[in-house]
Amino acid sequence: MYEPPARPHALVRWWRNLVDVVWALEHLRLPLAMLLGVTVLGTVGYHLILGVSWGDALYQAMITLSTVGFREVVPFGPGGKLFTNVLIITGVGTVFYTLTLLIATVVEGDLRRNYERRLMKRRIESMRSHCIICGFGRVGQEIADGLRERGVDFVVVERDEREFQRAVDAGYPALCGDATSEEMLVAAGVERATAVLASADSDAVNVYVALTAKNLNPKVQVVARSEETHNERKLRLAGVDKIVSPHQISGRRMMLAALQPLVTDFVDTLSAGRHGEQILAEIDVLDDSPLQGQSLKEAFAEARGTTILGIRRKDGSMIVGPRGDTVLQVGDAVIVLGSEEQIGRLH
Fewest CB within a 10 Å sphere: which of 3, 210, 299, 340? Predict the structure, then answer.
């Protein structure tokens, strides 16, 4: 899981918030630029025509544009009066137009939504080794809930606005858009992600998600939902690393619940991730790992109390309940149950 950097200084946070507010006023950039332009024009004009200081010129421009009616800083000649008429015609309309848009933005909630969208973008950009959930239906929500329980960073990508808003209301970082597009996956940080979970209820959509994700980041792990068994080959060809069939899993679970209910309860407990001080973890044996070439008994000598549930070999075969003399090889993945402190000693 990505560890966030140290909290920045209060002045830095204030400046970032100010920038976020300015960016949140995206549709007001042109009116604000026009307002700034007429203010500068008025200030420069009064400074040159009336020969007053820059401060007095700015003051005269402000009272003219705001139509407050204060007296002039110096008596106006013909040139000053002509310039004032031009400034009133061009500037006052700009001022009121900008203020109207600004008030409407605040009242209608656009400012808040744009500001929250900006904060969401920054939050996603700070993520590393996170997961991307493509689709926030029932399956996608279960995935999100499970990742949150385990403290894993993730981003939800959902094209339906109602489902997207549901993810936002749940407090999940989310983007509204098509997960099959490169732009959307790049915005979700696919280059920095560990896994992409294609949970749409359409196999065709999941195929395109896998193709796009693998094209942008060949190393990312893609786990895809499959509705039809005959589409699994297409998903494999698209680069999916792991295929999950909800119907197949549901059928097997119902069969186990009927014949061996205790086994089903135990599996549910394990899948919850944390059990008091115990966590379920997967330890990969890499090229530079000190675990390679060691037997389980030797490798776990300093992590007494951990339970070795199984080993997945490099070829995909699974050893359930391995013996202590089983030798670990590069490419193995060891599934263990133990405390975080015990498991941390093995890395």
Answer: 3
Contact indicator for 209, 190 with CB cutoff of 8 Å? no
Rounded Cα–Cα distance for residues 121 and 115 (Å): 10
Q: Which CATH architecture has domain 276-344?
A: 2-Layer Sandwich (3.30)
pLDDT for position 221: 95
* DSSP output for 231-260: GHHHHHHTT-SEEE-HHHHHHHHHHHHHH-
The string of pLDDT tens digits covering residues 205-214 is 999 999 999 9
CA–CA gap between residue 281 and residue 308 (Å, rounded)? 10
- Pick 128-249's CATH classification: 3.30.230.10, 3.40.50.720, 3.30.450.150, 3.40.50.1000: 3.40.50.720
Who's near 234: CB < 8 A, 6+ residues apart? 203, 207
